[in-house]
Amino acid sequence: MPVNYRFGEYRLCAGSRELFHRDHAVPMSSRVFDCLLYLIEHRDRAVGRDELVAAVWGRVDVTDAQLGQIVLRVRRAVDDDGNEQRAIRTMPKFGYHWVAETRVEPDGGSRESTQRSATTSTSPEAVAAAVGAPPPSSNLAAPATRRVPLLLAFAALLAIAVVIAAVVALRLRRASGPDVVQDSSAIVVLPVTVSGSDESWLRLGAMDAIAGRLRASGLRVPTSESVLAVLGSREKSTTDSDPTSTVRRALDPGLIVRPTLERNSRGWHLRLESAAGAHADANPGDSPQLEADASEPLIAVRLATDRLIAQLGRTPPLLGETDPHLEETLQRAEAALLGNQIDVARSILQNAPALERAQPELRLWLARVALRAGRAAEVESELNSLLDDESTTRNPLLRARTLIGLGVVDINATRYAEAERVLTEAIDALKGLPYPLDRSQALGNRAASRAALGRGEQALSDLAAARVEIEQAGDVMGLARLDMIEGTFEAKRGRADRAVPLLQRAAAAFARLDAVDERVLTTATLVASQLQQIDYAGALASSDRAWALKVRIPDPELLSLLLSSRAGVLLALGRRAEADALLSEIERRPLPAKEEFVGLADQVRAQLALERADMAEAVARADSALQRLVDPEYAAARARLALLRQRASIALDRDTQQASTDPLTSIGDTQPALLIAAAERAVRQRDDAAAEQNFRASLSRADIGGEAEDIIIAADAYGRWLLGHGRVDDAVAVVGRTSAWADRDFRCALLAAELFHSLGRAGPWSSALSKAEHLAGERAIPDELRKPPAG
């Protein structure tokens, strides 16, 4: 007689093969259920690994990693994990033991067994919730959307993970170029010119099929996305109508392939014209042409492309058994995704015949579309089911791509340790396979997981490995995005000197590719890094270039980011009225959905209020920013906000102790700004010994960190305190720390003028005062400092 097993808030119905949490069905694959049931039924003892494998798979040739995946999903289903092991205890070098307190009840028939939750549906809509990838036969790379999550500019690498995982597909083929194409060059495939047919999908679908097949033979081929980005820029221009010259300038290819596909009475005719990248215009008659005829367009594509591959001295990739109808369905979906038509791609896949929809390749593609649509949380169940499929187990590439998808899901769910483990398994599965694109995706995602786990050096190693692959592929867009990712990571680690060149290179590449969103996001981080380096001229130039894109930014969040970033630059230059106007424009618009963006604007607004001596506004804006900039990456910003808030509170004659420290308990006392805050509280309490101790500690900490902004803040506070106590000789060494920036930073010039005024040195005082006046903008210089020093 079937029984029910109850443990905690769970009920497992052996007869209907269902697990319920309270009254809600828990979706799981059959293999996961088999594992759970077997462990519960044999809970009186530990179950050996081989015994469990035989019970779940019906065979013994299963790896420990595969078994570990199933046990992991069982743990998740019953709210257990490998650390606490409340339900499943790992028996080292043996197996597993079900240890949760369990009672057995007769199964009197369950209404839930006939009223299953919608989350267990196997309809096309449910199948769509999985991660997709192109079929092995076509070796098609998953195209990246032009849209990038907005948190990228201000998030650490864990936020960038989503970009790499769900949006940015790193395309590559690690191989040297053929003799006809130099190793430093690449082959660019243009969109297909189609005639005699209204099948518009062929323009991009056949283009990507040609590029994918060339790439599969080991040639360096920029992604279709990169080419389309360049051509999108050309289409906006009224002065350049030649796609060949446009891609030559932006992508610097060694060979340009111009396909023409024609439908005639005999079927399909494909012609490939190829021209050397550097001399295409000069010798158009020398361009070789290759042709092929076939009954189906993709067959013609394959025949003509293989002839080009052979002409370039390569061997066409071998094909396994393929379904031409499935191949066309996937290529149609690829064309839709290249056109950024996610709904169209989903419709193409979901409306495919039932036999095609059951294929693991199409299921994987449906999941990929779900990820592109931002529905990562929906795909986990289907991915697990796909991983349990026998065809996935037998296909290492399919298995690896499924694992990569699970890694993406884990990252989105902040399960970074599990993501790292799953992605490592994917990388291992790809060993020996000629799919460096997939390895690069796995490496990029694992880098994100490791960064989130605090293992920055390992993350950078993974990014370096991905960079090698992308550079070999000649993928301009992918390389630019990797520069953006690595530059952002370095910026958030407080290494502006390393971040700036990477971000500048990325911004220049995005400008060539006319990737507006990526360019604005990159520039926001670049500007912040340049401000940290006290490179105000560079920050303004970077901001000016991004500002020219304002009219092309419909996204309100991205526009808010652009406005607050520019306001910060203008405020640093003393252009308060202009900064105020930009901040007011932000407030007239709907608030961004991202709390961080509101916090970043409030941070600039708080500084402006402090400079204008509107102390109540400064406190209010600082409080707002502190409530929103809560992630660990904002530790330095939060510390400076706390110092700002304390100074405004002191000016209002308010008690500052609790308000200054409570929002920052997670940061500790290692931030220079927090040490300054402690020193200034000691000054208020007339405890000079504690004040000097903290001033010295703040400057020492700033020196260790090496950030120019921190050094200036610490030296300015300590130097003024020493001057105020008449300790002019001691102040010389402290103020001298800022001399390198006295010709470009108003604070440094003003501090130098005050020092020389106290020393009675008229010449240096006059020079420093002149610099301060030049840098002041709308900032005031104290009247007493304008009077020549005595003596």
The CATH topology of one domain is: Serine Threonine Protein Phosphatase 5, Tetratricopeptide repeat
As a percent range, the share of strand residues is 5-15%
How would you name the CATH homologous superfamily of one domain? Tetratricopeptide repeat domain
* CATH secondary-structure class of one domain: Mainly Alpha
Radius of gyration: 31 Å
Provide mean pLDDT, rounded: 81
Determine the structural class based on helices, strands and strand pairing. Answer: alpha+beta
What profile does the largest beta sheet have?
Answer: 5 strands, antiparallel
Shape: globular
Tally of DSSP helical segments: 36
Oligomer: single chain
Q: Tell me the span between the first and last alpha carbons.
A: 106 Å
Number of strands: 13
Helix content: 55-70%
Using the 3D structure, state the CATH architecture of one domain.
Alpha Horseshoe
Unreliable segments of 5+ consecutive residues: 109-184, 233-240, 278-286, 657-668
| Biggest sheet strand line-up | 4-3-2-1-8
Short recap of the structure:
Among the domains are: 3-119, Winged helix-like DNA-binding domain superfamily/Winged helix DNA-binding domain (Arc Repressor Mutant, subunit A), CATH 1.10.10.10; 121-173 and 354-469, Tetratricopeptide repeat domain (Serine Threonine Protein Phosphatase 5, Tetratricopeptide repeat), CATH 1.25.40; 179-313, Rossmann fold (3-Layer(aba) Sandwich), CATH 3.40.50.10070; 475-553, Serine Threonine Protein Phosphatase 5, Tetratricopeptide repeat, CATH 1.25.40. With 791 residues, the chain is an alpha+beta fold. 58% of the residues lie in helices and 8% in strands.
